Each structure stands twice: as C-alpha cells, then as structure tokens.
Amino acid sequence: MEIRRVRADEYDTLLELLNVTFGNHNKKETHFDRDLPAMWKRDDEHMGKHFAAFEDGRMVAALGVYPLPVKILGEELLFSTMGNVATHPDFEGRGYMKALMKYAMAELENIGADASRLGGKRARYGRYGYEMCGIQYKMMFTPHNLKNYFPDFKANITFERLERDNSEALEFCCDLYDSEKFFVVRGKDDNYFGMYSSMVAWQNVPYVARDGKGNFVGFLSVKGNEIAEIFATTPEIFRDMILSWAENIGDTVNFCLREHNIAQLRILTPVCEKINIVSPSHFKIMNYKKVIGALLKLKADMCPLTEADFTINILTYGKLRIVCDSDGARCEDYEGECDITLDRNGASRFLFGPLPAYAVADTSVKMGNILPLPLSWNLQDRV
C-alpha cells in the first residue's frame, strides 16, 4: 500500500472514486464536482488537500482535510473539515481507511488546526476524538403558521436568482456574510469564487433578496423548501424573507438558526410550527483553551454572564480553569486537583452541548450560566 497526497493530474481519478463509492452506498447517481465546487480545481493546492491509498498504482481509498479559517467576533481560529472519506467497494475491509485516518490526524497537527469537524458514523470517528456536540436549531414554518400568525401579510421581498457574474450582488452578499459573529472566511478573492461556491454547495440555488425599493436586503441558498442558509440586514427582514419565501412556494419552509442568532430566535420561535435542538456536526477540539476562550467571548456578547469558577481536567489534553468575574470571562491553564475530569469526547459534550452540562457530568460546582458554549456550524461550509 502506498499513501500520499493526490496530485492535480489525478483530479478525474479522485472524482470517479468518490462518485462510484458514494453512489454505491447511497444507491443513486452522485456528482461530487456539483455538490462541492469549492474543492474541485485542477491544481495541486486543491487536490493536495486529499490523501489517497494506492494498490499497484490504482487509487482505492481517499479522504480530504480542508483547512477553514474561522472568525468569532473578530478572533481568528483555524478549523478544518474532514470529508469525502471513501474506499472503493471492491477494496473495503482491508484497513485502508484506518491507515488514511492516521495521515489525517497528523495533517491536523501539521496545519495547526484549533478544531475539526465532520459528518458520519459516531462510533467510527469517536475513536479519533470526534464527538457529537454543538447546537443548532432546526425550524419549520408552515402555510398554516403564515395564515394564522400573519393573516394580512403580503410578500414585500422579491428574490432574484444569483448568477456567478453578478459581482455587485456578490459583493453585497460577502459584506453581509462577513458581518456575522461566527463564520468561516470565504473571502472575495478570485472573483468571489469562495463565496459563490459555498452558496451553491450541495446543488443549492442562491437568491439575492430585494425590498420594495429595489435595495439588496439579504440572500439565501435553497433547494425547494429547504433553506440551506439565509442572511438578512436586520432580524425583521430575516423574518420577512422567511414569510415571503413561504408565500412564494406555497409550502412549508425548513431552515436553521444558530445559538448566537438571538434576535432572529426571539422573532421566529413564537410563530414556527416546530423547533428542534440538534448537533450540527461531530467536532474534534485540538486547542480547547483557544476555542473555549473565543466562545466565551461570543457567549458574553449574547447575554450577561453570571459569576463562575470551575476547573476541568481533559484527559490527554490538560487542565483548564474557566472563570467569570469582574474582570470578565476567560479560560486559563491550571495546575492542581480539578472539579471535573472527563475524556476529550465527554469534555466536548460537557462544554458545547447540545445537552445541558448536568446531563453529561456532575455540576455541583460554581458554573453560572456559561455552559453550553455556542459552538455551531453553517453546513454550507462542510468543505
């Protein structure tokens, strides 16, 4: 077995491996170049984010490690998505993926990732430190809700399909997206390639929203009645975009909000038919101190934090003290006996939800209202 990075001239080979493997498992035709356009460029930079296993010169298994710069209230962190994990159906059960995962874990260390995320089977990836954690709210808004809560509503938002060459609209979308408190950096380079390719990921269709005066006021990416992402200049316009889209399609609308979307949650939770709290991904935290510190800052921006002071020993990582006092909220290194001891997976659930901390471990210590911390993810940035 040979394991190495994929080269630019192996673009078609990798694409065929992924399409065949996932098509076989999902029992349907698969097109990864359409689903994930951000990763499909015929160059060593993009192909080199993949590791592949070869037998007698044939590519038989692969996975990708994709660095994703993140900003949380202006603080820069490096997350990474791991994905496109595939073994050709004819070569399953021979240990290729286990070998590739070792390379992937080493790559996360090499690039200095603060955290990583993926989807997939919990038990398979839990052994590598990935755990189901974080918080996302799945919302359902129905025609019945529209009729009963907004009987006099008339669509006041129009939607215009966003084309790749509409640089004026894309610049607006980039600026609006970058005003978020927690986001993956998409950037404006290469004529908005990062922004547009994320908007159309998973074969979603992007639309820019205009108000009655023709001004840009938001955008969304959508597939039928499933809104993959939605952003607006104000919470009220966010609500009106949901209502207008629901009226336009005459059907139920499903969308997600994240924990830091406080104003949108306050406006929409009283009128939505269903609200489910879910974990958006499996996360592996490499730098707990830095991730906790950034999310403490975000939590303090969301609501007043009450006094807290507790210590946690994260096995195979280290000991931390989490404090909130008159000097603010912070996470710092600690030595000595800890209030709580957990393995890394348990610590991730304890610190980041989606369950309350007391459902994971003893919380008889002075924790205030700090936990769970608002770890989340926009799933259009899965790769």
Concise synopsis of the structure shown:
By secondary structure, the protein is α+β, with helices and mostly antiparallel strands. The chain contains 12 helices and 19 strands.
Give an account of the 3D structure.
With 383 residues, this protein is an alpha+beta fold. The protein folds into 3 domains: 2-113, Gcn5-related N-acetyltransferase (GNAT) (Aminopeptidase, 3-Layer(aba) Sandwich); 137-278, Aminopeptidase; 287-359. Helices cover 31% and strands 31% of the residues. The chain contains 12 helices and 19 strands. The strands form 4 sheets. Strands 1, 2, 3, 4, 5, 6, 9 and 15 form an 8-stranded mixed beta sheet that branches. The chain has a 4-stranded antiparallel beta sheet with strand order 8-10-11-12, with helices on both faces. The chain has a 4-stranded mixed beta sheet with strand order 18-17-16-19. The longest helix is centred in the N-terminal third of the chain and has 16 residues, at 11-26.
Keywords:
383 residues, alpha+beta, Aminopeptidase, 19 strands
Radius of gyration from CA coordinates: 22 Å
Dominant shape: globular
Q: Would you tell me the overall average pLDDT? A: 95
Largest sheet: 8 strands, mixed
In CATH, what is the homologous superfamily of the largest domain? Gcn5-related N-acetyltransferase (GNAT)
Tally of DSSP β-strands: 19
Structural class: alpha+beta
Low-confidence stretches: none
Label the CATH architecture of the largest domain.
Answer: 3-Layer(aba) Sandwich
CATH topology of the largest domain, anyone?
Aminopeptidase
Give the terminus-to-terminus CA distance: 27 Å
Total individual domains: 3
In what range is the share of β-strand residues?
25-35%
Number of continuous helical runs = 12
Can you identify the CATH class of the largest domain? Alpha Beta
In helices, the fraction of residues equals 25-40%
